[in-house]
Design brief:
Elements (H helix, E strand, L loop, with lengths): L8 H10 L4 H11 L6 H12 L4 H21 L6 H13 L12 E14 L7 E4 L2 E11 L13 H12 L1 H4 L3 E5 L5 H8 L4 E6 L2 H13 L5 E5 L2 H4 L5 H5 L5 E5 L8 H12 L11 E7 L3 H13 L3 E5 L21 E8 L2
Parallel strand pairs: 4-5, 4-7, 5-6, 7-8
Antiparallel strand pairs: 1-3, 2-3, 8-10, 9-10
Helix pairs in contact: 1-2, 1-3, 2-4, 4-5, 6-8, 12-13
Pfam families: Methyltransf_16
InterPro entries: Methyltransf_16, SAM-dependent_MTases_sf
Protein name: FAM86 N-terminal domain-containing protein
Length: about 350
Amino acid sequence: EIGTLVPSSSLQMICAILAMEPIDAVICFARDFGGGSITENVQSFILENCIRTADTQFQGAYLKRLLKKLISEIEYCGGVVLDELYEQYASHMIGLNDWDHCSNGNSKVLKKISFIYPGSSCLDSCGYISSCFGFKKFNVQLMCSTNMLEGDTGCCIWPSSLFMSEFILSHPEIFASKCCFELGSGVGLVGVCLSHVKASKVILSDGDLQTLANMKCNLELNDVKHVHYLHLPWEEESTSENHLRLHGLKPDVILGADIIYDPLCVPHLVKLLAAVLNRDGHWPGRNPVAYVASVIRNVETFDCFVSVAERSGGLSIEDITGKNRVLNFLPYLRSYQRCAVRMMKICYKS
């Protein structure tokens, strides 16, 4: 039955490598694929599908670590290591600096996130949807920063953006033919998914110019056109004189992923949400709705957001995490703890 299909370990292994998942997770998939050991066939498969075709400028350091670990595991278990595996590792040793010291910690990497459609047989392919191992998958390439410090957090892939992307793909009817506006768009993953489900207009924003530039590159990398970009520092745009600019966007759906993180930003965020969620006669139709995905790392900060939103912003917040089913498009992302993400539906109180 199509509905009971499970992505094979070979497919999950390849997707994990391209997404630069932790090496130990890749090794587990490789063992599963080989029936308990990393056989010569498994090695050939990895070489053909990942190593030979890799972009060494942006993926080389990760692959160097992967090759080292693969060779070590195979030798430790008494297996046969293919000559090309040694050769590829030597090539990466010569041509690349160590992963932890490249570009003074300011380097970029190219991650490829594959959304595997659960239980779907891939009978055809069209453009950015490709068939692989009997499954349909939607591929997104993202240039990300390896530096989690020094203001580069907007160029990283966060769990909430992965969950929001799965939510969009699980419920395309919410976003199709709608004007969608995202706050804190980061690497642009959500924007790519909105374009994929045929949103009529996609508006992406961020308060950091470096993040905004990287986001534009990622949308171009995925051949996504007709996207609008806004430099949107919350503390400036939350003032009443700037609300008209926000009203002019006329969004139907507002999205945010991992935007509740700093109590100092909460008042500005609430004012922004209130401004775009309340039509207040600025344009006809029903009030928009917002979907905010968040990992609650600090309960006090989240409670602060809820309190300010409901008391000062005139907003109603509903936790829909358990109501709207979100399909698992990313079974191979072992580093992604989807159960830690909450999805909130936010509306303006009429």
